């Protein structure tokens, strides 16, 4: 809906002249009215014509002309505002997720992997202006989704994450980090970020985590590391039953926090520990706030000037008054 605005609203103060003008009109009429005493008005009956009675309308026409002119000077106009956003600083993010069997531990509800999938999906929704990729790893690693701005593709990839023995069981932190670095090393984004998540210690893979973090540092990639798991014991899978079902027992939670802290510190990131669903959500929220995307909002204003009709109206009233005073009412003035 178009909105009417006034470029020079201060001219509306001139409307204070209207009551003054009305007062002056009445004062002048009193001054110009002569009086005399006569014995009878019988001889003047029928001499007041309709045109004489309408003569005060000339003053009303003049006031209407003045009012129209004041509105025109205030410059009424309609404005149509259109917004356009432009991302001035894009961020490329790769989320590297540990999908080893221990991610099925039930210290987070319903388990670590499902809790992570929900939080990661919310994180993607909150990054509409960034490109995001997804890497999964156990003893080996592969790119599940390359860096893309298509959030629907990322969400589908997150929902499909599961433990399915495609990767040999184990925790290759160096493999996961190196694969994520490989997805970002050629990125032209001004900021490159990896979110590396694990719930164990590095015990597989042929690339050492320290080597992968050195490479990330060389490419200017910041790594946020997250250790997932409660402090103490957790109900974790330890074997597969003959019927194919996983068997669980209480096991000690072991996370190489010194390694994760070292990776984060070396690359300019930060280490977090997620001991519950709530804490995991808080961590992703904090990362979301730390890595802000600069967005420039451009507003376009389309003005349509509306003062011209009021100028024409003022001119019409002035010409009307002038014409009446010099023709029909010339004998009355």
How would you describe the overall organization of this protein?
This protein is an alpha/beta fold and 333 residues long. 38% of the residues lie in helices and 26% in strands. The chain is built from ten helices and eleven strands. The strands form three sheets. It has a six-stranded mixed β-sheet, with helices on both faces. The protein has a three-stranded antiparallel β-sheet with strand order 1-2-11. The longest helix is centred in the last third of the chain and has 18 residues, at 308-325. The chain is rod-shaped and about 115 Å long.
Q: What are the main properties of this structure?
A:
10 helices, single chain, 333 residues, alpha/beta, rod-shaped
In short:
With 333 residues, the chain is of the alpha/beta class. It contains ten helices and eleven strands.
What is the alpha-carbon Rg in Å? 41 Å
N-end to C-end Cα span: 49 Å
Strand order in space, largest sheet: 5-4-3-6-7-10
Shape: rod-shaped
Report the count of strand segments.
Answer: 11
Bin the strand percentage. Answer: 25-35%
Give the rounded overall mean pLDDT. 85
SSE class: alpha/beta
Note the main sheet. 6 strands, mixed
Low-confidence segments:
none
Q: Would you list the SSEs in sequence order as H and E?
A: EHHHEEHEEHHEHEEEHEHEH
Helix content: 25-40%
Q: Count of helical segments?
A: 10
């Amino acid at each position: 809906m178009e909105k009417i605005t006034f470029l020079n609203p201060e001219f509306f103060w001139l409307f204070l002249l209207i009551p003054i003008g009305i007062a002056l009109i009445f004062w002048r009429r009193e001054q110009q009215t002569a009086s005399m005493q006569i014995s009878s008005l019988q001889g003047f009956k029928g001499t007041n014509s309709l045109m004489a009675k309408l003569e005060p309308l000339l003053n009303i026409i003049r006031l209407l002309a003045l009012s129209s002119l004041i509105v025109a000077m205030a410059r009424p106009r309609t404005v149509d505002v259109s917004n356009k956003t432009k991302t001035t600083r894009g961020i490329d993010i790769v989320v590297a997720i540990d999908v080893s069997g221990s991610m099925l531990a039930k210290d987070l509800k319903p388990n670590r992997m499902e809790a992570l999938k929900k939080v990661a999906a919310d994180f993607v929704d909150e990054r509409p202006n960034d490109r995001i990729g997804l890497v999964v790893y156990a003893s080996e690693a592969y790119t599940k989704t390359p860096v893309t701005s298509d959030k629907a593709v990322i969400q589908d990839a997150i929902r499909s994450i599961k433990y399915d023995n495609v990767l040999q069981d184990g925790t290759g932190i160096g493999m996961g980090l190196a694969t994520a670095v490989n997805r970002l090393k050629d990125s032209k984004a001004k900021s490159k970020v990896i979110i590396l998540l694990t719930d164990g210690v590095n015990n597989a893979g042929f690339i050492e985590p320290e080597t992968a973090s050195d490479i990330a540092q060389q490419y200017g990639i910041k790594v946020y590391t997250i250790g997932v798991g409660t402090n103490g014991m957790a109900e974790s899978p330890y074997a597969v039953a003959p019927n194919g079902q996983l068997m669980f027992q209480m096991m000690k939670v072991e996370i190489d926090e010194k390694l994760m802290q070292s990776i984060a510190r070396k690359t300019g990131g930060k280490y977090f520990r997620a001991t519950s669903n709530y804490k995991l959500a808080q961590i992703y929220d904090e990362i979301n706030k730390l890595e802000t995307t600069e967005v420039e909002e451009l507003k376009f204003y389309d003005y349509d000037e509306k003062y011209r009709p009021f100028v024409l109206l003022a001119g019409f009233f002035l010409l009307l008054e002038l014409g009446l005073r010099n023709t029909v009412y010339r004998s009355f003035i």
